[in-house]
Design a protein that fits this description.
By secondary structure, the protein is mainly α. The protein has one domain. 85% of the residues lie in helices and 0% in strands. The chain contains three helices and no strands. The protein has helices at 2-39, 44-51, 55-60. Helix 1 runs antiparallel to helix 2 (44-51).
Amino acid sequence: QKYLEDKRYEISVIESAEITGELRGRKEAKLEIARVMKARGIEISLIVETTGLNLEDVEKL
């Protein structure tokens, strides 16, 4: 019984790490798109609307 509980916990931790990594990757992709848009002179409000990033993140780029 203890072994099964440990295995379930281990799988849960791995799945959480995978989800976290995937979300981090998505945010990095959005930030890269925002960098390009900002470099091309696109208005920050449009970058925020398009990427879904918050204003502070876009302004920091």
